[in-house]
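Hi everyone, sorry if this is the wrong subforum. Our group has a chain we'd like a structural model of before ordering constructs, and none of us has done structure prediction before. Sequence below.
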Amino acid sequence: MRSFRLGGRSLDAVRRSLRASARAAGLALALALAVSPGVAFAQAEALLDEGKQLMKKGKLAEACPKIEESYRLSPRSATLLALATCHEKQGKIATAWVEYIDLGAAARKEGNKRLEADAKARGAKLELRLPRLTLNVPRAAAVEGLEVTLDGTPVDSAAWGQARPIDPGQHKVSASAPGRKRWEQTVAIKRGERKAVTVPALARDASAAPEPAPAPAAEAPAKEPAPVAAAPDKGATGAGKDAGGAGKGAGGAGKGAAATGPGKGAAGAGKGAEVPETAAAGPEGAAASAEAAAAEEPAPTPGASPRHSGTFVIEAGAAGGALIGLIDAGSFGNLSSYSYSYNVPEGELIAPCNEDVCHAGFDPAIGPFAGGQAFVGLALSEELHLGVRALGGYRFGGGYLAVGGPSLSMRFGRLWVGLTGLAGAVGQNAKVTGVKGEIPSEMVDLNYGRTEVEVTAREGSLPETALVETFAFGGSVDVSLVLADLPSSSWTSGALLLTVSPTFMKGLDGFVLVAPASLGYRFY
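Answer:
Right subforum, don't worry. Here is the predicted structure as tokens:
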């Protein structure tokens, strides 16, 4: 058998050399793969330590990017907690809020209940101070091809008209469409503030090339769906990576903020938000983008949708306070058992009492009451509710309150301020000061100008106290503090409100003052 040689070496020797080289290369690759995570972890630790030191010195603009890079290299809950804390101190509270939500989800998966509770508490605290921005696009402005952007990031049409959490500061809203002039507006928003920007109808651009005429129906090719523009870097609007993990998407400034240009995540979800990943283009991506944008304003649970205008609003709650009655006249029991006398031409006339000619006098009375209040109406806008309010309750010591009427309330940050017109019945137990009978007008001169006279009652026949009732009308000023704003996609969407409603009413005989406070939940 002949032996082939190659460059002075046999073919078998060459094969053995190649096998040895392959084994060495495989071993080197395995070692590199094994060492690489360790190197990344060491780099992440160094960046995290450096970022924490800078944060202690107050150099937040330098600290936050280093902590963010540390989290990218080694995504851990401890790093995400430091990142959310840094963004919170930096004033990017919407970004930090989403990161706390993602941190809670990650801690729940890890079984770390203490960290989960801490993240939830931090997020709930920030939620009350979140500014929210609504982008309204009227039907007249929604021309074909219209693109609305917030700080350079496209806003899906499904999110138009919905409030979104956003970081405090200045943000740029722009709109463009084929054949139309571009429109821009800068809006400044503060903590806890709610603002709305309305996109006007774009003016036609005379310098733009005329649009080509459409092809005849018989020859027109099938129109393919327009692709959805991919958001820069790693996230598209309303979605992120690694569902359930921690993330960087937020509705505000910074990387991952919905309000500041390109970033690593978009509004409403971060890398760990429990939402599906959005495709960059195509009809499937557009559908996913619309679903994600509809969940722009999550409550403590990611994916929740905000409240909408044009929907019914129902509020119910427990109420209590003070009922002050300045009702000086009224009726009680059976007055026909009493009589009174006055002068007539023939002498003296003894006339029987009844509710038409006799009335009792009462001292002012004050007492506590407990009951409830309710509001049913329509959300004319996210900030304006119109409806009917009712207030009722039992007065301790005897009596009641049952009033209601039209009500209008408007939101200013965390406060709802409204006016309510009220009418209804009020009754209360008060001390009886006596009973008087009316003298006919034609007999006033014979009775020395008196129009009424005291009823002579037997000793002990008058009750010490009695229930006096009157029909009253007036109004109240309603001031409500939002204790917790909990918008969601379910029927429980709403807010917990603490309301005070100082009320003034005029009775048929006297006045009624009511000072109620209520704790209620407004469903919208």
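For your construct planning: The longest helix spans residues 11-56. Residues 487 and 493 are 4 Å apart (CA to CA).
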